[in-house]
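Just curious. Protein, please.
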Amino acid sequence: MDEIIQDDRHVAVDTVARTLGLGHNAVQEMIESLGYRKVCARWFPRLLTEDHKGQHKAITSELLQRYRHEGDDFLLRIVTGDESWFRHFEPETKWQIMEWRHLHSPSKKKAKTVP
């Protein structure tokens, strides 16, 4: 049961019951005994990993070197943009948004959104 929940945090109790061939109430009690509870998962921008930060630093250093070499002409050729990453999940109901979490699992880190 733990593997099923770990594979899909949005799995419903009915789905787990059908998969294991058990009753709904028995599955609910087992899930609670494993220390899981349903919490509401919301959309949030993805935070950069250390790899992404390293790539950004390398690109920035390269751009700075090119500026030092080419001067202001280099700046006139730069096109900038913004990059936002979002988790894509279109739930039909609030219940589908909810995820299974352990009672003592840390809360998700949320990035500050900027308009």
Summary: The chain has a mean pLDDT of 77.
